[in-house]
Specification:
Blueprint (H helix, E strand, L loop, with lengths): L3 E12 L2 E13 L4 E5 L6 H8 L7 E6 L2 E2 L5 H11 E4 L11 H6 L8 H14 L15 H13 L5 E5 L7 H16 L3 E5 L3 H5 L3 E6 L2 E7 L4
Parallel strand pairs: 3-8, 3-9, 6-7, 7-8
Antiparallel strand pairs: 1-2, 1-4, 4-5, 9-10
The structure holds adenosine-5'-diphosphate (ADP) (2 copies).
The site of one adenosine-5'-diphosphate has 12 residues, from strand 1, strand 2 and helix 1.
Length: 228
């Protein structure tokens, strides 16, 4: 069963009396353990789709289902809860808190956890897993771009999501460092977590299981990558 799927999804924005159709009735599905890349020109609807997958926005019409449940039946509080339980986010500019160490940054999504000791242990395990066991107490400005992104990935995984959404995760990294991030995604999908990324980097798209090519709010191709 898909982690998240959409059928005939339309998203319109109304600004100043004008209506913009950002998504024009698209279908999508993301299965456990899949690595999906969303590509397309600027303004084609990539961010809109990512926001939809992240339950940050709901469609104007059409059906979006998270684990088989229609997201429109969720109230705001439930949508937020499902997002925290199910979905992790990674950004181009990392969005780490500069005054917290690596391990503290990873703990942030669980700050209200009633078992701080377990939270510290989980954060430590995750940082070891992404190869940063020696950097637990370093601050973001003491880390390289690739290391910061790996801290951000660890943070995104701390609540054991089923879906990891990555917005241009390699956009600020060189090719070799980007490859390290792809290797992390590979390990994550091996454990059954689905990863969806918006990317402008061809090498990222080439390593995806599937590429969703958006053009002007429609899906032009949804093809198996040759190099899968
Ligand atoms: P992409 O991420 O591919 O650049 P977007 O999803 O950001 O595309 O945008 C798709 C279309 O929707 C564009 O025409 C954009 O101008 C419009 N759009 C996006 N967000 C908003 C918004 N909040 N209000 C009005 N129009 C928007
Ligand atoms: P994120 O919010 O995902 O961390 P940012 O919004 O900080 O990323 O990105 C920084 C700036 O770079 C933004 O103003 C954005 O418009 C721009 N940007 C994003 N992706 C690209 C890209 N592929 N090429 C050039 N500029 C980009």
């Amino acid at each position: 069963n898909p982690v998240i799927s959409g059928h005939d999804v339309v998203k319109e924005y109304v600004t100043g009396g004008e209506t913009v159709r950002a998504l024009r009735g698209i279908d999508f599905r993301v299965d456990p353990g899949e690595f999906v890349a969303i590509v397309g020109p600027s303004g084609s609807g990539k961010s809109t789709l990512l926001n939809m997958l992240g339950l940050l926005d709901v469609p104007t019409s059409g059906l979006v289902e998270l684990n088989g449940l229609d997201v429109e039946t969720f109230g705001d509080a439930e949508r937020t809860r499902k997002r925290k339980e199910t979905i992790g986010f990674v950004f181009q500019s990392f969005h780490l808190i500069p005054t917290l160490t690596a391990v503290e940054n990873v703990e942030v999504p669980r700050l209200l956890d009633r078992t701080p000791r377990k939270t510290r242990d989980a954060a430590t395990d995750l940082l070891e897993r992404v190869g940063l066991g020696e950097r637990l107490d370093h601050y973001p400005d003491e880390l390289s771009g690739g290391q910061k992104q790996r801290v951000a990935i660890a943070r995104a995984l701390v609540n054991e999501p089923r879906l990891l959404l990555a917005d241009e995760p390699t956009g600020n990294l060189d090719r070799d460092t980007g490859d390290q991030i792809l290797a992390e995604f590979d390990e994550i999908t091996d454990e059954g977590v689905a990863v969806v990324t918006v990317t402008h980097d061809d090498y990222v798209a080439q390593s995806a299981d599937r590429v969703v090519n958006l053009i002007d709010g429609t899906v032009r191709e949804d093809e198996e990558a040759v190099t899968g």
